From TrEMBL:
Residues 153-248 form the MULE transposase domain. This is MULE transposase domain-containing protein. Residues 513-543 are annotated as: Disordered. CDD domains: OTU (cd22744). InterPro entries: MULE_transposase_dom, Zinc_finger_SWIM. Signal peptide: none annotated.
């Protein structure tokens, strides 16, 4: 029942207004000037807070731009301090705008109208019995151009909690020559069975250049999707995400090991197996793993072999995967990052398909703007590191990203002393770029690197219409004629009953004007009474949230974290003395002014991942250093414009590459570096990072987010010149100065820090 109230309180106060028609003026008479209540604020009167014409225009423009209601109200208050508008007025205005957009139609009719007006390509599948929409495919016209230009690699993954109907959303993401992601297409599906995936992929195939179908499709181990790919794109290589495989190994195998060192040893061997550059290396490492673990840990060995190695080794092991042009995409991190960006725009998971489409349209248009900017940078900007005459034939013709890769190979060629017999041609096969030994003769003779050595993917720097060859154009023109179909429809129409004629006319009207469709929205999921099965609470406070549910490996790490918290403190005299000595060692490695404020030190394994282990421990993520690396990599990728401005493109790519490491121990070039990584850590986790060492001490703050309600600070210490530890610091400790770069590049919203 709706809660209603009245403003009638029996107040005797009254005024009488009367207009004099002769002189066109009003007279006001106070009939009773007495109130039976105290003076109330004008905000309590809806009429006083009514929007004027100018304010209505401002609110409409800001809603169209996707600005949140509370920020709209703040803007009105700043423009006019005497404004008495309240949040309810803003919400009512939004509801009025939405009703005006629908214009008496249904949300599905409005959705089809938007898709048609935006020149989107769309396909739908409707339930014949209920006339409800089951599946919807749509792709932006510019995204279709990008798909035809950059058709080598696509990443596919479903995400959830995006709409009120609980429909899974399949996102298809591509990669440009400037290493930027783009949304190729979206598909709302009623379920995740093979037929649904096959329908979605068939729709996707229709928007591609049929002579340039994908070489590689990267997915998770979703069997239905993999089967559909084998049918619709039989010539494409299906690669499975290495990151998700490693997380599955962790979830199912870590619990079987007696201690952390045994697990780290096994995990290191597994990563060595996955990264095997040749088939011979793979089988040699596999034999070593079999000898060591088949008898000692039979359940672990059985799971790894039967679930992953035997059926899928060609899908994720480098020896097979790196023979294909995957452009460095051997995980689904790129599409996972796109999910995160998408949900930031959505904010809630209870929108209908029409409002969701509008949000997607805004997001895609912004993405295309950044892609065009990146094309322009590669065309007109020249980095000084490429000033050598070796690059004169490449500058302006290939992307900066490709130049960065070639520069690394040039440096490798100059320091390789001419010995490249063991080269597996990984760069050539996976990126379509020359290896170091291919460049060696050009470097020795000081000849320019030729353009023909570069794959066409890296040469696309202009968003343009794809020109069709003459024979394809003629074939398409023949296919586009509908004379035969029109004649068939007329024959059927003339030979059917009046009822069937009405149905044919209805369908023709829908073809002419999609917004006249009679298709119904998908049915809403039934909300049952009581506590949902498997949950501990009857109601959840985040039913509107777009945040995904935890994966199995996250539950495993959470349980480990809880067990560590419940574990009793070490109390033996020997261990106490050892901890006290280590604390003194660390204190000596710190600046003098901080030593007395260090109350405790948390040490981590020194295997090249120590900095990331400190972050994982400080963020209460257990010992999940790999997740930290992926989180920071996603931060760099999503905010690449910001970090390009701070570090430069070359350094930003170096930092991104340094995070790409799954082996233990980590090589030197994969170690954490400060202070650059400090800014990324602070911005990724929205915390303050305070770093102490004898060489440099500084405080890093988030660059693009305001402080949370409960602020967190992570204290890190750098000792012996090669190892990070976590410091426990007393409350009244003096902090080092804020890193100077933060002052120059932080966004206004982060000023509150």
């Amino acid at each position: 029942m709706r809660r209603s109230s009245t403003k009638r309180c029996g107040c005797p106060f009254s005024l009488k207004g009367q207009k004099n028609a002769h002189i066109n003026e009003w007279t006001l008479e106070v009939k009773c000037g007495v109130h039976n209540h105290e003076m109330v604020h004008l905000e309590a009167h809806s009429y006083a807070g009514k929007l004027n014409e100018n304010e209505e225009n401002i609110v409409e423009e800001m809603f169209v731009a996707g600005v949140k209601p509370r920020k709209i109200l703040s803007t009105l208050k700043k423009r006019d301090p005497s404004n008495t508008t309240v949040m309810r007025t803003i919400y009512n205005k939004r509801a009025k705008m939405q009703r005006a957009e629908l214009d008496g139609g249904t949300q599905i009719q409005f959705l089809y109208k938007c898709i048609t007006n935006g020149d989107y390509v769309s396909f739908n599948k409707v339930n014949a019995e209920t006339n409800q929409l089951e599946s919807l495919f749509f792709a932006h016209p510019v995204s279709i151009q990008l798909c035809k230009m950059f058709s080598c690699v696509f990443l596919l993954d479903c995400t959830y909690k995006t709409n009120r109907y609980k429909l899974p959303l399949l996102c298809i993401v591509g990669v440009t020559s400037t290493n930027r992601s783009f949304y190729a297409a979206f598909v709302f599906m009623s379920n995740e069975v093979e037929t649904s995936y096959a329908w979605a992929l068939e729709c996707f195939r229709t928007i591609l250049d049929q002579k340039k179908l994908p070489c590689v499709l990267v997915t998770d181990r979703e069997i239905a999707l993999m089967n559909a790919i084998a049918v619709v794109f039989p010539g494409a290589k299906n690669i499975l995400c290495k990151f998700h495989i490693s997380r599955n190994i962790l979830a199912h195998c870590k619990k079987e090991f007696k201690n952390g060192k045994e697990w780290e040893k096994f995990n290191g061997k597994w990563q060595q197996l996955v990264d095997s550059p040749r088939e011979s290396d793979f089988y040699q490492t596999f034999l070593e793993m079999k000898t060591e673990y088949e008898i000692a840990y039979p359940q672990v060995y059985s799971y790894v072999v039967t679930t992953w190695i035997t059926p899928y080794k060609e899908y994720f092991v480098a020896a097979w995967v790196d023979m294909h042009l995957h452009l460095g995409n051997s995980t689904t991190n790129r599409v996972e990052g796109s999910h995160s960006q998408l949900k930031k725009f959505l904010e809630v998971s209870i929108g209908n398909l029409a409002t969701i489409w509008q949000t997607f349209d805004q997001m895609i248009n912004l993405q295309h703007t950044e892609i065009k900017r990146s094309f322009g940078q590669s065309t007109i900007q020249t980095n000084r590191v490429f000033s050598s005459s070796l690059y004169s034939d490449l500058l302006g013709y290939i992307s900066i990203t490709a130049l960065e890769y070639i520069k690394k190979e040039e440096l490798r060629a100059r320091t390789g002393h001419g010995s490249f017999e063991g080269c597996t041609h990984k760069i050539k096969y996976t990126l379509g770029l020359p290896c170091a030994h291919d460049l060696l003769s050009y470097i020795r003779n000081n000849n320019t690197f030729p353009l023909w050595m570069i794959h066409d993917h890296w040469k696309q720097l202009t968003l343009r219409e794809i020109k069709e060859e003459q024979d394809i154009k003629e074939e398409n023109e023949a296919d586009s004629k509908i004379d035969v179909e029109i004649e068939g429809i007329l024959r059927r129409y003339n030979n059917t009953s009046d009822l069937q004629k009405q149905e044919i006319k209805r369908k023709l009207r829908e073809l002419m004007d999609p917004s006249s469709t009679q298709t119904l929205a998908p049915s809403l999921p039934t909300r049952t009474k009581g506590r949902p099965k498997g949950s501990y609470k009857k109601f959840t406070s985040d039913f509107k949230s777009t945040k995904r549910d935890p994966s199995l490996f996250e539950h495993v790490l959470k349980s480990e974290q809880l067990s560590l918290k419940m574990r009793p403190m070490r109390t033996t005299k020997k261990e106490a003395i050892s901890e006290k000595r280590f604390l003194k060692v660390v204190q000596k490695e710190m600046p003098a002014y901080i030593r007395d404020y260090i109350s405790d030190v948390v040490d981590v394994l020194g295997d090249g991942h120590c900095g990331y282990r400190v972050i994982s421990n400080g963020m209460e993520m257990g010992d999940d250093w790999l997740q930290v690396r992926n989180d920071l990599s996603r931060e760099l990728q999503q905010k690449d414009i910001l970090y390009d401005a701070i570090f430069g493109t070359t350094r930003r790519i170096e930092l991104q590459n340094s995070l790409d490491c799954t082996t233990t121990p980590a090589p030197l070039d994969k170690w954490m570096t400060m202070p650059d990584m400090g800014l990324i850590i602070a911005s990724c986790y929205n915390i303050a990072v305070v770093h102490f060492s004898m060489f440099q001490s500084f405080t890093c703050l988030p660059l693009h987010s305001p402080p949370p309600a409960v602020r967190r600070t992570l204290f890190m210490g750098f000792i012996h010149g090669n190892h990070f530890v976590q410091l426990k610091i007393k409350d009244d400790c003096p902090l080092p100065p804020t890193f100077s770069i933060w002052r120059r590049y932080h966004e206004e919203i982060a000023e509150q820090w």
